[in-house]
Amino acid sequence: MGIENSGQLAVGPGADHLFELKRVARAVGAAGLGSAAPEILWHALGVTPDAITPFGLINDRETRVRVLIDRAMLKISPLNFHPLENTATTQISPAELVRFIAAGGHKVEVLEFGSREPALPA
Question: How many CB atoms lie within 10 A of CB 24?
């Protein structure tokens, strides 16, 4: 998951499913996607870099953050995320996650992030 200065949040299914951020950026017309500075994460989502979570959208009352979700992630249930800090994990179904995001006034954009095979270790 990453957020850029223009306020985009990309949510993917996890480390076992690799995807190209450049491909996702092109699909949404962004110059690029990547991790934001800690200050931006705190200001936009109320989270630190080690606890990035879609639950942070509750702190984006002005709906400045654009939410991009990988379609593959919506096939995984339950989903596991930090609840605003990385000291715990909470589970939610894909449908509940989409409802949570929409309830905060955010539009959920579901995309095919695509995948690539991980490189074999040398």
Answer: 22
- For residue 66, what are the β-bridge partners? 8
* Maximum C-alpha span of the chain: 47
Residue 6 has a pLDDT of 47
102-113 per-position pLDDT tens digit: 999 999 988 877
- In one letter, which amino acid is 38? P
Q: How many structural domains does the chain have? A: 1
Q: Are 103 and 19 in contact (CB under 8 A)?
A: no
Q: Where are the alpha helices (DSSP H) in the chain?
A: 21-28, 38-45, 94-103
Indicate whether 46 belongs to any domain.
yes
Most confident of 24-33, 88-97, 104-113: 88-97
Residue 75 belongs to a domain with what CATH number?
3.90.960.10
Residue 70 lies in a domain: yes
Distance CA(121)–CA(100), nearest Å, equals: 39
